[in-house]
Design a protein that fits this description.
Length: 156
């Protein structure tokens, strides 16, 4: 559960490209979360470029990232990673169109002692990363489940 905040805030970041099918799952999650979030929680979207992510979260105490991953697990598998407790496998984000990926940004922030107090990554195993719009059915279902899990974590 989310504890009381200090000086920082809460930011939720949906990552992806909605024009590459399942790569848009992070954006879909962010958009589904938006209507029920209390005003003290900021939600935004990003392409996944590492430096930009580090700038987005620099003043936040709690950060949630939502993105598509590809680790070889079954499509629609949900991975929940806590960056304070584990390193983030770079293989998860191999579909990033940027040279400096989500995982690399997290590990650089860790090295520079600039990780938020809490950094949670929800990665949804994608299936189709070709050009086009719309999520695979199993990825769309996983997005709904991630939204439900986040609501439970934030007691919404």
């Amino acid at each position: 559960m989310i504890s009381n905040l200090g000086a920082g805030g809460i930011i939720l970041i949906g990552i992806g490209n909605e024009f590459r099918h399942d790569d848009g799952v992070g954006l879909a999650i962010a958009r589904q979360l938006q209507p029920k979030l209390p005003p003290h929680i900021t939600i935004t979207e990003a392409s996944g470029e590492g430096v930009g992510l580090m700038e987005m979260w620099q003043d936040a105490e709690i950060v949630y990232l939502f993105d598509a991953v590809q680790s070889g697990d079954k499509s629609g598998t949900i991975h929940r990673l806590d960056a304070q407790k584990q390193s983030i496998p770079t293989k998860f984000f191999n579909y990033s169109t940027h040279a400096f990926s989500v995982a690399e940004a997290i590990e650089l922030a860790r090295t520079l002692n600039q990780l938020p107090a809490q950094l949670i990554i929800y990665g949804v195993e994608g299936k189709n990363f070709t050009s086009g719009v719309g999520l695979s059915p199993e990825v769309e279902q996983a997005a709904i489940e991630v939204v439900e899990r986040v609501y439970l974590e934030f007691r919404i």
